[in-house]
Amino acid sequence: MEGGILEDAIAKDQSEQGALAAGHRKRGPEDESVEAARDAKEPRLQEPAVTSGGEVPSSAGQPNASPNAPTTTGTFLTAAYSEDKGCRNTMEDVCVLSLDARLEGQSETCRLAYFGIFDGHGGVSCASFAAQHLHARVMESGLIQKGLPTSSDGKPDAKACKTAIVEGYKKTDEALLKECAAKNWQDGACAVTVWVLQELVLVANVGDAKCVLGRLPDKSTYGASDSKPKAIVLTKEHTALLERQRIEKAGGTVVNGRLAGRIQIARSFGDAAFKKLGCSSMPDVTAFPLTARDAFLLLGCDGFWGVFGAQEAVDTAHSLLAEGLGDKAVTNRLLNVAVREKRCKDNCSVMIVRFGSSQAAAVQPDTR
Questions:
Q1: Across the 368 residues of the chain, what is the mean pLDDT of every consecutive 10-residue run?
Q2: Is 225 helix (H, G, I), strand (E, B) or coil?
Q3: Of 94, 99, 133, nearest to 117 (Cα)?
Q4: C-alpha to C-alpha distance for 205 and 134, rounded to whole angstroms
Q5: What domain range is 64 assigned to?
Q6: Residue 162 belongs to a domain with what CATH number?
Q7: Is the CB of residue 216 less than 8 Å from the CB of residue 232?
């Protein structure tokens, strides 16, 4: 796997402090994406807004802190995504972007952001359900309550956070399987999700959706003309071929590289017909503290990563940012290259989450 799994190797790095912003969301036309700040007048949502079928939220605000934003200092975040159904008749990807993902009544000093791409197969029902309910289930499982101790330093407990995410995935899939039985849903969904709690980044996935970190070399400052980020893959691909031993132990089979000869992935939301045959909703979770060297994350469905290598995507995004393009323009360009130049035939979704100081991240000069 390109770049390898990022885990304890980067835990030694210490995060630098900047200023924090949060964003607000509204719906916009296809292939547009979100970047900017949360509107102080927007009510706090119990669950993040989600979109599918080509509807993409966009924001007209500026990435500055609002009265509803957390009051702690920290790395400044901006984000955007773009999506296209490609040559498919329907759009089965669902994207979630919430720069302020705290629930009602949670501490104003806590920063929590949430991002995700849910890649449906055989339909969009399971992707939509998981996108709508996962964050709330993770919160119920103690992401903040157990993951953010009341100690003086206030640093999140990575182990407790991982446990909450795994439990949240499990609860979401259990509820989803009941819906599948009641409504005869036969589809499923892969997923890649990211939570940023204070200065801790948590990345989880099931299936073949992927997240890649663009990380600068030692002693580099993002934006320097001679500094280029290295691609580090943060997720693990869950295919039936790679998980044959676990599947067979669960009583399933792998035929021609597919679970029960039918589906290539071995972990997902939904896929009710395959859950007793070894398909699992257990995510792999990676955690690391933000540092000044961490430039951005790229999240994508398998359609995007099927035509883009990890380092190629990071290099392309870096070059576009160096040209002065804003986050929205970067994801639009990446999407256009994937669909129109590289001829991606599947649904295609890509998201960027950018890290930096308030001064650097607030500059969004080009939204073409």
A1: 44 33 34 35 38 34 34 79 93 97 81 97 98 98 86 81 98 99 98 97 98 89 73 97 96 95 97 96 98 96 97 98 96 97 95 78 43
A2: coil
A3: 94
A4: 12
A5: 8-362
A6: 3.60.40.10
A7: no
